[in-house]
Amino acid sequence: MAHPAVAVLERHLTLYKRLWRASLFSSFVLPVLFLASIGLGVGGYVGGVGGVPYVEWIVPGVLASTVFQMAVGECTYAVFGEFRWNRGAHAMFATRVSVWDMIGGWLLYIVFRVEIAVVVFLLVVGAFGVLSSPWVVVTPLVAALLAVAVAAPVTAFSATIEHESYFALLFRFVMLPSSLFAGVFFPVEQLPVVVRPLAFASPLWHGVELARAATSGAAPLWPVWAHAGCLLVFAVGGVWWAGWAFRRRLQD
Question: For residue 202, which phi and psi values (nearest 5 degrees)?
Answer without folding.
Answer: -90, 130
